[in-house]
Predict the structure.
Amino acid sequence: MKKLEVRKNTYYDSVTLMIISKEVKTVDGVNEALVGMGTDLNQELVKALHLAAPGFEEVTANDFFVAADCDSDEAFAAAVAKVDELLSKKASKGKSDYFPPTLEGALKVNPDLNMAIISVPGRHAAGVAQSCLDHNINVMLFSDNVTIEEEKELKENAAAKELLMMGPDCGTAIINHVPLAFANVVKSGDIGMVCASGTGAQEVSCIIDQLGGGISQLLGTGGRDLRREIGGIMMKLCLDALINDPKTKVIAMVSKPPAPEIAAQILDQAAAGGKPVVVCFIGGDPTEIEKRGLVAACSLEDCAHKAVALSKGEAPETFDTFSMGVQQAEQMAAAEAAKMAPTQKYIRGLYTGGTLCDEAMKLLIGELDHIQSNIPLNPEDNLENARTAASVRHTFLDFGDDAFTVGRPHPMIDPSLRAERVVQEASDPEAAVILVDCVIGYGSHEDPAADLADAIRAAKTEASKNGRHLAIVASVCGTEGDPQSRSATQMKLADAGAIVLPTNAQATRFAQLILRRL
Amino acid sequence: MPVRAMKICASLWGSLHQEPGPASLHSAFQHAANLSAGAGMLTLLSPGKGLQPGSAVLERAMDFSRLGAYSLTIGRDGIFADGAKLISFQQAQRLELRLDEAFLPPGSERPVLDFLSGRRGTGLVSLAFQEADNPWTEFLSPRLLAFRRAVWAGGADGARQAARRIAGCGPGLTPSSDDWLCGYLAALPSAFRRDGTAALLAETAAEATNDISANLLRWAGKGYFSEDILALKRCLCHDSGAAERRTAMERVASFGSSSGCDFLTGFYFGLLDTNTTGGKRLEET
Amino acid sequence: MSKVNELFEQKLNVVNFGIESFYQDLVKQDKPAVHVDWKPIAGGDKKIAGYLRKLKQPELYEKIQAANQEALSRILSAQPVLVGMSTAGEAIPGMTPTTILHAGPPVTWENMCGPVRGAVMGGLIYEGLAKDLKEAEELAASGKITFSPCHHHNAVGPMAGIVTYSMPVWHVVNKTFGIDAYCTMNEGLGKVLRFGACDQEVFDRLHRMREVYYPVLKEALELHGEIDLKVMIAQALQMGDEGHNRNKAGTSLLLREIAQDIYNTHFPKEQQMAAFKFLNDNDHVFLNLTMPACKSTMDAIFDIPYSTVVATMCRNGTEFGIRIAGLGKDQWFTAPSEFIRGLYFPGFTEKDANRDVGDSCITETTGIGGFCMAASPAIVQFVGGQVQDAINYSSQMYEITVGEGNAYKIPVLDFRGSATGIDIMKVIETGIRPIINTGIAHKDYGVGQIGAGLVNPPEGCFTKAIAACAEAWG
């Protein structure tokens, strides 16, 4: 039945009216409702929604109305009561300023809590996470230094209750289009992601966004989930959820290569799900993946390309080239190499994103044999005391690793240490190429490009004073929708003299082109 | 002691007579009140609010609902309740809120869009991203496109008809589409104000919406906008830093519940049509 | 379909622990989020956290929770009533002509702070036991005087809290449990004994109180009959008092209640008027009624085994002391009391301040005073804050109490009952200490009040208490 309530020449605060329009529809027995000032157009809309009750013609632009289609008079009375309740509710100023000290206190403020982000010091993290699970709250655990035993116990408890227990060391997730912690503003769409790495997830989701695709859910598992000790508990739970999610058409899975028997279980589960799945085991062997009819990706960028192709109903094709074209890239690389002094031979990768650093090393290792690093691909290439030690030959540093973060915020929040290192590398006569990432989005520094751009300028100047030409190759991980804006960030780095490539994989391949010519 | 007005819209003040004339309380809210007087509508705002056309910002908050109990008169000196001075305009700073005619350079819509991307889901913002996520946006989407086409096709009648077809749509005290239209008008090149098109469009829309919204539309048609909006335009014209631009947009966006964001959405489309496409290729946007 | 798929259909409501910017990002996007001001339990002190764990063992914890509910229900069911007046010597148990009661936990003459010493000496002179300060000081140090806390004698006293044999006292009874409580009459502001002033002006007033005002008021109360203080305090809270530092409304209510009776006494008109004027000129009259009302309320919870509710908080100017319901009246947990953060009267600075002193925080123990600061916007400026701070303080107290009041309510919090029944386990767990708003005394005797502000009990009181609980029951 259609019902109407009119208040002549009555004006209410906009804020209240907006809230009311949303809330009235949630009243039981109310199918559709519209609340507002009785302007011609609002009236027309009421008619279009078939909400016009008798007497509606007499409403004027200066009247406030509630029009609803509801099951009974009682339901309408309840809707009007709701309207009055909301109208009389004064703006609860400062309520959000109140920070309760405990979870119990938080639940009093908002009893509907269903997701926790936890970034307390590692030794306290498991306790906090468990208390959230006890209250049936899903967990995203960003803290590190959580023992593997604690992780296993938390995940087993979570899995028993079918709750998410993302992490430890999980920095990125997008649930129901809400970016959590370090995540980007990506378009919504039908690609569901489950990732064991934070910046890997950011890179893939951002490239998907650039390619016109969108994300349904982006779930994280933490870096150790696919180890034998944990057995992929969370990966399995997440995969299952994405398989059952009607809004997810294509699944993208990102991880470092897992333990083989865990990989087999996960891939079997993925293959049985009936949805197209793109698997990016960064630097891993594609055989096991392809054997099961799943799509293997050779880089984060490739993963995004293939997922978007599948989402559009196209055949996935491997992308391992340059958006600008190979020829153009070759020319630019040659021009860079030609300007360099004979001493300049090596690449220095300086990363704030761990997975991006890892990916770059894996793309390069085939041609370089040895890359010194604080997160080395081979144990013998481990760089001790990375924070103070000078770089030797080809060196890659992950500034998000413990070696750099003790007593400091994560480099994505405070990128100054990395910026200093860019300048420092410039004084090494053997340095030819500096490869950097710049991760934007929520959680990240509000303008990470500013510091980096200054450092790039200083580095270029320092090198040229000494008769050298330093190539600085950068990529920005982010989207246009991010608060910092991808294009604005790219512009700042390019203005400072960096060569900016669209993705980390392309930036790495471009650096490789330069190195080949030295 | 009367409450002092800190700032007052210069045009409003100019339109008042020395000798106080009668006025009545039109509507009162927690932080604002509207009075109807011979000169039109006058808005009183709590401290901390940006000055709007036709308004005065007070030095301290007062209970506006009390005003209904008095017989009110308004003159250049202030507002009198039952003959006693309640609000004084004497020391108020008189601000001219007219939009300057500086040219907004191509590309200035970009930061506006970036800003709006964080506000998707608010009011009409999703329209800037070619999404329609509520009955109002669905309803308005084709009409707004028709309006934009009509504005650039020339010929006042078509544009007027189209303006009438978008006025007063949406929830909120100032319906979203009216805020959108104010924003759109703010972005139009000065030629539209000089030849009276803007005023005509505003007047047409004002006739189809409520008094409060109509008041703001009429000011917008004449080229008058709030302090915050003028500041935003200055920021965009002079290519200020990103942080400064953001702050300026935050201030505009914080107005009302969705009003500010709806304004920015209209402003974005206005800039887009003026600079990027010159009004020629609207179908593609 | 798993629960995770259900989550996908829900609106995300996020709780954030740790890095605050993650919360701010969500707020920027208008997403519902709550940030927890998380701190490790007991500031990361493993030993204290261990005690807490011990007390949280399911079987014991169940007993504790039941005991605390019992404590809360006793607090809420209290019925403090003003029944009349007498002198300390007649009424207070254990009182002798050479006994001096003082505020706070037990303290020796040697350890007493300036204002308490001043008040003790003043008390001795007032009682005629010494003729001047020098003699009073010698007598106090001689061992011939019995010093004892008010709290050991069913009494409470603001600031120095000195009670001597012949002083008139208000008599309050918690009728539900038949518990008596006594408190002296408030002397007013300025140079007063409770702030350690002890000159002729002080003695003259004290004498007038006993000889002139007391007889009138005693008879007026007899004529009037008992007065329900719980109802009166509840009303005062709705009139802008918080029950500790602002007592204007309560005093007015009391005066309205007994004005007629004062004039119906058999005393000469001048004496009636003097008594009336004495009450009327002093906003703080009602504090000395609120305090015994709270005292009689809280003494009812002492014999509840396993209760971790704080039954007493008080300070003697040197130490802060608390007692725990489940551990009984004889165990004090003390630590040096803190200095008050607040505003000073012109001419005084922090350097002049004495440590926190007085029994008046029995009001906070009962859930009013600082716990009701949101009820008293007028007091907020006096203690140097903003209205929102007051609301936040009052809101925060719910985190450390067993429950909420049923009579003492805060209008600005939608008449929510004030936080009631401080649980030391919650204090330890959250790191939030009770908030007390109070006056600041000068550290030298004879000067008086020099400001007002906010203070907390020292953490040591709570850590010692929880250790004792764990030891006793763990």
In short: The interface with chain B takes residues 28-30 of chain C (CB under 8 Å).
